[in-house]
Amino acid sequence: SFNLLIDIQSKLQSKGKGFKRWATVYNLKQMSKTLLFLRDNKIDSVDRLNALVAEKQEKRERLLYAIQESEKRLAEIAALKMQIINYSKTRTIYEAYRKAGYSKSFLEAHQTEITIHKAVKAAFDELGIKKLPKVKDLSLEYEQVLEEKKAAYAEYRQVKKETQELWIAQRNIASLYAAEREADEERQRREEKKQR
After folding, report:
1. What is the mean pLDDT of the chain?
2. Which residues, 6+ apart, have CB-to-CB distance to 121 below 8 Å?
3. Is the pLDDT of residue 104 over 70?
4. What digits encode the pLDDT tens for the residues 34-50?
5. 37: buried, middle or exposed (CB in 10 Å: 19+, 13-18, 0-12)?
6. Which positions ≥6 away from 173 have C-beta within 8 Å?
7. What percent of the chain has pLDDT over 90?
8. Angstrom distance (rounded) from CA 170 to CA 192
9. Tell me, what's the pLDDT at 48?
10. If DSSP states are collapsed to H, E and C, what string results for 141-162?
11. I want to staple 38 with a disulfide (CB 3.0 to 4.6 A). Which of 43, 125, 181, 196 is the partner?
12. pLDDT value at position 179?
């Protein structure tokens, strides 16, 4: 692994000569690692590097979106399972309440269960559920979505790492070119001064 190059000039104001020497050696090592990384990955141009960074970032975003969608679906399934369980637990009491002619005394005795049952029915109506899915089927779907999420997350971690390596290489190469430009400009200024 390699890291970003250190901006020696900005750090040098508060550090001494030893830091400058260490930072120069550090930057040389990081640039060597960057060049080896580019060679090993067969990246032969800045345009290719930029294209790979963009491609990996797009893939990372797609995977992150898929993970978020999986998490959303897992939450929906868990909530639906809980609603079905609550419906099953309160169904007999609600049916007894209906058979009792919606008696106020029965309602007072079983207020909590009847309220839960009405809330669950309202949630089912809101979701447009006519026939309740089986909890077993929901559990199977939950396991499948969870496996897909785990696979996507593992791939996401790998793509994130690759993206970060490419991004660091991109920044290091940009720093190298900027340093070369600055050195060329400095040489030109010196030559212009000599000519005057």
Report:
1. 89
2. 87
3. yes
4. 989 999 999 988 899 99
5. middle
6. 34, 38, 46, 49
7. 59
8. 33
9. 92
10. HHHHHHHHHHHHHHHHHHHHHH
11. 43
12. 78
60: its two tokens: 């990372």
Query: Could you please report the per-residue DSSP string of the chain?
Result: ---PPP-HHHHHTTS-HHHHHHHHHHHHHHHHHHHHHHHHTT--SHHHHHHHHHHHHHHHHHHHHHHHHHHHHHHHHHHHHHHHHHHHHHHHHHHHHHHTTS-HHHHHHTHHHHHHHHHHHHHHHHHT-SSPPPHHHHHHHHHHHHHHHHHHHHHHHHHHHHHHHHHHHHHHHHHHHHHHHHHHHHHHHHHHHHH-
Residue showing tokens 């995977």:
63
Structure tokens belonging to residue 64: 């992150």
Are residues 145 and 70 in contact, defined by beta-carbon separation less than 8 angstroms? yes
Tokens of 33: 């690692």
| C-alpha to C-alpha distance for 21 and 19, rounded to whole angstroms | 5
Give residues with Cβ within 8 angstroms of 142, minimum separation 6: 74, 77, 78, 81
Q: Above 70 in pLDDT, residue 13?
A: no
The average pLDDT across 4-21 equals 71
Contact (CB, 8 A) for 49 and 170: yes
Contact between residue 53 and residue 166 where contact means Cβ atoms under 8 Å apart? yes
